Amino acid sequence: MGKPEVKGTVTSLSSVFPPEEMQKAAKMVEGKLSEKQNEMNQLKEFIADNTSLINLVQKLPDELHHDIMVPFGKAAFFPGRLIHTNEFLVLLGESYYADRTAKQTVEILKRRGKSLMSKVDALKAEMQDLKAEASFFDSTASEVADDLVEIREYEEDNSTERVSQSGPVELESPSVAEADNKVSASEDDEYARLMSRLEELEKEELAAEDEDANANATETETDSDEDELTEAAFHRKKVEGYSSLDHNQRYLVSQPRKQLQQSKGKDPMNEEMSTTYNHQDLTNQLACTGLTAEPVTKGNYGGEISRGRIVHQDTKMLNPPVNASVPSEKTSLKQIIHDSSRNEKPVQTPKSEFDSSKAFTGSIIEHTENLEKKLPEQKTTSSQSSDSKPSKPVSRFKMQRK
Amino acid sequence: MSSSSIALRELQRDLENKANDLSKLQKDIAKNHQVRKKYTIQLGENELVLKELDLLKEDANVYKLIGPVLVKQDLAEANANVRKRIEYISAELKRLDGSLQDLEEKQHSKREAILKVQQRIQSHQAGKAKA
């Protein structure tokens, strides 16, 4: 297989999101958040006052007159009587008052309470947005601190992948982009293994590509999305992507997986695989190399799956010292996964869902015991991603993710 | 050289003036925002009052608080007054919107002018350094 031409750019995250600005932005968001919190508290007080007023107004007409201590001036009271207990002068707003009975007053107060509640809800929604922003800033700030680098590769067929690697040291960005060329033997074992895997997969993929040629995925989500994705968002996207992918796409996505596993499971598998793989790969990689991979949008998956090249690239990526993990490199991930013992995969029963023509044919597996484990995993999608978290050496990734 | 330094000083003075203008503009914009907020709140309150007045029966007593005096008012009269006030407030809001846009445009152009002056200063200094 020839390597597809890869042009790419590597940008250090710290150049895109300079750390000081990130911190400033994070602080601003925090400030706004606290403002909203104050407003929220005030509104809650109003609501509490309103309800106690309603109770009082409902109790007053129970008696014809009440004996009370009437306030007189700033610091005095005298005993007196409250009469006309059913007549209330209610402030309607803007210095307008109206005479109303107790029942009517209660109605007015209830309406006021409703409008207050709606304001509180609106505030809550705003606060949620702010919180999401804040968490995004935090995660990017931590990523920047870790010197992650964004690597964008453009394949011939215009699929883009975004991979971020952490290279506290040196990401030789140009080298990363051209990982293909570089395949340094440093990562050696993995590399060799990956290479062989990849080749196998590619062959299979190419064969399958024809079938899936149409399924091209929505790559729309992509770049812009990628930029914004936070890990949480990534998970979400994955889930969304999966759910939105139609079978074809999923199939495509699963292709790489399949190949890894050599099973022809369908979508569910794919999704799961990808999710699990991502997690796993990441974890594996992390375990091995301490890399962190940035989530990739699903869209990419769909589009890229069919490409065996992706697999190639993935492997290449893997190899470079940097060990970037490419999203599409699910396949590579898978391989990695295979290589490393993944027990984490929560897995699922691959067959039950899809299967129809694609059920595992048993031919899967075998590259390692791990594969078998993987098969089962294919089933669930998002759940897997969450599952993959279990205690693994990779937890590093997870922790970062979380 | 002295002429260029004089020119440099002039440019810097120009820059200062423009910066002052810009800060004034920004203050105006901030004030505009505040007034707008106030008016918006008042508008909301008036609409609430209108709704309540509509729910009142014809013969209900309506009072208006004018200073320390609570004056009895006719329901129809109160309705009319509130509606007029709502119209007035909306007109004010529109006017403020227009002036806000104006101010923002001015601010924008001031910023560009400042940039230009800064660039000229830089080129001057670069020229001086070379010489």
From TrEMBL, chain A:
Compositionally skewed regions (Low complexity) per UniProt: 378-394
UniProt keywords, alphabetically: Coiled coil, Nucleus
Pfam families xref list: Prefoldin (PF02996)
InterPro entries, per the entry: Prefoldin, Prefoldin_subunit_alpha, RNA_pol_II_subunit5-mediator
Coiled-coil regions, chain positions: 106-140
Entry keyword Repeat: no
Feature: compositional bias, Polar residues: 325-334
Compositional bias segments (type: Acidic residues): 220-229
Segment forming the signal sequence: none
Compartmental location: Nucleus
Region (Disordered): 154-190, 205-229, 251-273, 312-402
SUPFAM superfamilies: Prefoldin
Basic and acidic residues composition-biased segments: 336-345, 366-377
Annotated family: Belongs to the RNA polymerase II subunit 5-mediating protein family.
Record protein name field: RNA polymerase II subunit 5-mediating protein homolog
Lineage: Eukaryota, Viridiplantae, Streptophyta, Embryophyta, Tracheophyta
From TrEMBL, chain B:
Keywords per UniProt: Chaperone, Coiled coil
One Pfam family named in its UniProt record: Prefoldin_2
InterPro entries, A to Z: PFD_beta-like, Prefoldin
Residues forming coiled coils: 86-120
The keyword Nucleus is annotated on this UniProt entry: no
Family that this chain belongs to: Belongs to the prefoldin subunit beta family.
UniProt-listed PANTHER family: PREFOLDIN SUBUNIT 6
Protein name, as recorded: Prefoldin subunit 6
Taxonomy of the source species: Eukaryota, Viridiplantae, Streptophyta, Embryophyta, Tracheophyta
